[in-house]
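2024-03-11 09:14:02 DEBUG pipeline.ingest accepted 1 chain
2024-03-11 09:14:02 DEBUG pipeline.ingest length=121
2024-03-11 09:14:03 DEBUG pipeline.predict start
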Amino acid sequence: VQLVESGGGLVQPGGSLRLSCAASGFTFDDYAMSWVRQSPGKGLEWVSAISWNGRTTYYAESMKGRFTISRDNAKNTLYLQMNSLKSDDTAVYYCAKEMRPYESLAKYDYWGQGTQVTVSS
């Protein structure tokens, strides 16, 4: 299993970024996927999740209305569109694979290496 994030970078407050997570080594469209982030000096924070078929999405309260999770099962890729970014969104963003197929329990067995998002003027 391999999860490779990309799309991070430096963005000004109010700006946007789109993160991608390229997945391989497993049947991508059988598994729910999530984004989790870690800010400097803070623990892991769950951001968003999407069901295996893309029909159901979940967001942390502070991300609702600003972030959009999606997936392209034909391309084995997970996305996170982030708009109206704030300095508090500065973190390393990780994609994570649900442990069991067809479930969305926020129990993960594989993580990517992360992509840095820095929101600063």
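2024-03-11 09:14:41 DEBUG pipeline.report The first strand starts at residue 2 and ends at 6.
2024-03-11 09:14:41 DEBUG pipeline.predict end
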